[in-house]
Specification:
The protein is an alpha+beta fold. It has a single domain, classed as SH3 type barrels, CATH 2.30.30.140. The chain is 28% helix and 35% strand. β2 and β3 form a beta hairpin. It starts with a strand and ends with a helix. The mean pLDDT is 87.
């Protein structure tokens, strides 16, 4: 199962402006932000699916989604393991 997971923008990568470093529950990864209508800034929350930011979301929505995902157990654990193993070059 693949889930959309909320993440917080930590920084926009200057060498690759289509990528942002994003923190998802303590795991930081480069995520492609090229599909977003507007460029996010550090502190913004985004919804991530398979390495791409799909949309900006507000912090309350992000927190609620993270709480829900943590409550469903194994699917969330599997998604976090996939995120930890991933990398965008």
């Amino acid at each position: 199962m693949c889930l959309g997971i909320p993440g917080e923008i930590v920084e926009i990568l200057t060498a690759r402006p289509d990528l942002a470093m994003v923190d998802v529950s303590g795991v930081q990864r480069a995520i492609n932000i090229g599909l977003l209508d507007e460029v996010p800034v550090p502190g913004d929350w985004i919804l991530i699916h398979v390495g791409f930011a799909l949309s900006k979301i507000d912090e309350a929505e992000a927190k609620a989604a993270l709480d829900f995902l943590e409550s469903i157990g194994q699917a969330y654990a599997d998604e976090m393991a996939a995120l930890q193993a991933s990398a965008i070059d």
